[in-house]
Amino acid sequence: MDINKAIQESAKPFQTIKDLTPLINRIGDAKIVLLGESSHGTSEFYSIRAELSKRLIEEKGFSIVAVEGDWPASQAVNRYIKGNSNKINAKETLKAFKRWPTWMWANEEMVEFIDWLKAYNQYKDTRVGFYGIDVYSLWESIDEIIKYLKKTEPLGADLELAKKAFACFEPFNRQEDQYAISSSFFSEDCVEEVAKLLASIRSNQKLYSDDLESDLNLKMNALVAKNAEEYYRTMVKSDVDSWNTRDNHMVETLNEIRNYHGENSKVIVWEHNTHVGDASATDMKSEGMVNVGQLVREHNEKKDVYIVGFGTHQGTVIAADKWGVNLEQMIVPPAEVGSWEDVMHQAGAFNKFILFDDQNRNYFNQVIGHRAIGVVYNPVYESYGNYVPSIISKRYDAFIHVDRSMALRPLEQIEAYL
Q1: What SUPFAM superfamilies is this protein classified in (predicted)?
Q2: Fold that domain 3-62+267-416 belongs to in CATH
Q3: Which of 144, 157, 295, 356 would disulfide-bridge 251, Cβ 3.0–4.6 Å?
Q4: Where are the beta strands (DSSP E) in 89-212?
Q5: For the residues 321-342, what does the mean pLDDT come to?
């Protein structure tokens, strides 16, 4: 069947979250729902994921939101929505996200969602948690460990191990690239220090148990330190190895969080399509790369995992033209002719979603370019590297298409690029 006709027959239009009820129903009793995005700077991706998450929490008992963010910064949100924070509001809480690109989580769309989570938790025995599963926060996580152990550590041994790890990394002035170069080319690494720290904290975890999840927080910061060390050590040697280290860490973190909250706990994951959309259905497979979506599918029963991809045909987006520079509001041009986003648009210039099943998966079984916009983006060069060859119906269980999208609303000031 022609792909345009297949979309017209399979896709359903939507305007409100109520129109997405068939998607909620199709998720069924899944325990892990992964919600993607094709950029980190599109308002609708955040707002739709928030509305879907609210329904999953209220109607299906989901109690964990895991995001592509740092563990320490996300813990500030976790404490706030559970009533364990002295922050006066969500905007103040989101200032914890200091690592570039700050707009990923410090934005107005997240403020609204966090306010909802706090209100929801207020009268619940089982409160929803908010956790960051990314790997970047090496120094911040060690800082958190030392800060906590100085106040409460009952034995002193773990504190000494944490201090040794900190001392090992200290000469690199909190510069990841300096550590990466030194460890990769001069064999000056801190592998042993972070491995011993994590092992000791794991063995002593019961000593840190309290109502504030201090045991989980301590263990996860130690896990970040161990895996971040590996990530930065491989970063200058191999893009594939560092990518796989990062995504394996995110899956390991998800597993730790679910184990902590019980085997029946249900988790919603917010990450970029490149992480949640099964890598084995893309050209990433030929390069030896894996990702969160692929690994979660492999580690769990099929019925327990549901992956939703997101995309847009055109609009505006928040991004930067170089790593680490000021964010800008940029134009997202119409999708490349023949790409997935283009054919979705050509099948009807309106918001729509497709649920893939045994009846229609074969209609979308061809390899097609699928747009991915990173935090670094230049629309002029979009044709060079912004489209990932994908089998959409294998990469996702459902797909949400926003035909014309708007830029995210960052809490910090933006520079116009229009």
Answers
A1: EreA/ChaN-like
A2: EreA/ChaN-like  fold (3.40.1660)
A3: 295
A4: 129-132
A5: 95
| Residues 131, 71: Cα–Cα separation, whole Å | 6
Contact 405, 317 (CB under 8 A): yes
Look at strands 352-355 and 12-13 and give their pairing: antiparallel
Tokens read off for 168:
């090992």
- The answer to whether residues 148 and 140 touch, using CB atoms and an 8 Å cutoff, is no
The answer to whether 301 and 28 have CB atoms below 8 angstroms apart is no
Amino acid, single-letter form, for residue 54: K
Identity of the amino acid at 235? M
Question: Strand, helix or coil at 39?
Answer: coil
Average pLDDT over residues 377-398: 94
Looking at residue 404, its pLDDT comes to 98
The domain segmentation of the chain, as residue ranges, is 3-62+267-416, 138-246
Residues 190, 230 contacting (CB under 8 angstroms): no
Residue 65: what pLDDT?
A: 98
pLDDT 10s digits, 143-191: 999 999 998 876 688 999 999 999 999 999 888 888 888 887 666 789 9
Q: Rounded to whole angstroms, how far apart are CA atoms 73 and 69? A: 8
